[in-house]
């Protein structure tokens, strides 16, 4: 296995364990929940195949579903986010990038990375909460949950990026 593959597996395990043991237990004001395992999906290299992205997203979501007793909604939302990820990434990058290009604030600048992350997180949370509620009858609480969870997770994405940016 290559060094990048081992690092991806390590990040996958660490972020999924942190999600299951710590972050899934935290619900701020009954609306906001941070899903930090999504940072792993955001940071996968650009050359990662679509099949691999879908497998990583589904696997991470399924593990969170199993341990948090949610009936497949994380797996569905993470898989959908993985599917849309490269389309969002292509809005901020060009085709001539190296194979080992990893999306970060350093590589695509803070503005591009922030919008890229926000679009992915909005995709994830919109699907997650729509599947959880399965109705649009509660539109105001639904919008509050989507926006507050997106912003809370974005805070963790920015903090993680600041610490990884210092290396």
Task: Describe what this molecule looks like in 3D.
The protein is an all-alpha fold. The protein has one domain. The chain has six helices and no strands. Helix 3 runs antiparallel to helix 4 and helix 5 runs antiparallel to helix 6. The radius of gyration is 15 Å and the shape is globular. The two termini are 24 Å apart.
Keywords:
single chain, 167 residues, mainly alpha, 6 helices, 70% helix, 0% strand, globular
Average pLDDT over all residues: 89
Largest sheet: none
What's the domain count? 1
Helicity level: over 70%
> What global shape is seen?
globular
Total of helices: 6
What's the gyration radius in Å?
15 Å
Spans of at least 5 consecutive residues with low confidence: none
Number of strands: 0
Beta-strand percentage range: under 5%
Class derived from helix and strand content: mainly alpha
Distance N to C terminus? 24 Å
Give the SSE order as H and E letters: HHHHHH
Question: What layout of secondary structure does this protein have?
Answer:
Layout lengths: L2 H19 L16 H5 L7 H19 L4 H18 L14 H29 L5 H27 L2
Helix pairs in contact: 1-3, 3-4, 4-5, 5-6
């Amino acid at each position: 296995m290559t060094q990048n593959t081992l690092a991806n597996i390590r990040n996958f395990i660490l972020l999924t364990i942190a999600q299951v043991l710590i972050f899934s237990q935290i619900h701020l004001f009954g609306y906001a929940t941070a899903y930090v395992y999504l940072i792993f999906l955001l940071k996968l290299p650009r050359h990662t195949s679509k099949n691999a992205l879908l497998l990583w997203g589904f696997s991470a979501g399924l593990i969170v579903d199993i341990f948090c007793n949610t009936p497949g909604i994380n797996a569905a939302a993470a898989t959908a986010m993985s599917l849309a990820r490269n389309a969002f990434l292509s809005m901020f990058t060009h085709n001539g990038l190296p194979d080992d290009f990893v999306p970060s604030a350093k590589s695509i600048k803070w503005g591009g990375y922030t919008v890229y992350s926000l679009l992915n997180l909005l995709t994830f949370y919109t699907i997650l909460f729509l599947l959880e509620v399965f109705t649009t009858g509660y539109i105001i609480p639904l919008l509050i949950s989507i926006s507050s969870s997106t912003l809370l997770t974005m805070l963790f994405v920015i903090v993680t990026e600041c610490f990884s940016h210092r290396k």
